[in-house]
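Minutes, structural biology subgroup

Action item carried over from last meeting: produce the structure token record for Probable RNA 2'-phosphotransferase (Neolewinella aurantiaca). EB confirmed the sequence was re-checked against the source entry. Recorded below for completeness.
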Amino acid sequence: MNPKKIIRTSRKLSLVLRHKPETIGLELDAQGWADVKSLLHKMAGSGTELSLSDLEKVVEENDKKRFAFSEDGRKIRASQGHSIDIDLNLEPLTPPAKLFHGTAVTSVDSILKSGLEARSRQHVHLSLDLETATKVGARHGKPVVLTVDAGAMHAEGYKFYCSANNVWLTEEVPARFLSR
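Output recorded by EB:
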């Protein structure tokens, strides 16, 4: 599978497993899992031929580790980033003292006034390191990295989760916990 096909397939999987499974007639369970055989069949029916080995390669080579197989390999799901209501069964964890959020320079003033909101997603996504946050911000324009005082948030009762691909998640980040 060539690199361009891996990217195209990864994008299609993101659409199907994170946002709109109905586009190919796929059903996800309450935790966001899809049956692998059904996914492959439905993808083929929508014009995307994909073998099991191709799917394994996409999961393995995705630089953000967006997808994961169940322990028995019979199911697949997106690790985070859903706009549909699913329960990843993540346990609340104590976050590191500081986390980071990458955004575009055009969004900074608004975020610093109103905070970070999940909006159409289930959670706000936060990074462990500046490099990752910078890459995320660069997808939206000139990047700016905001520092999140996760330790203070946690002390006030805000819940944090860590996804299978090490993205930290929370429902919101009030502006008072953000700095540039």
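Discussion: The first helix runs from residue 3 to 19.
Next step: EB to file the record with the rest of the batch.
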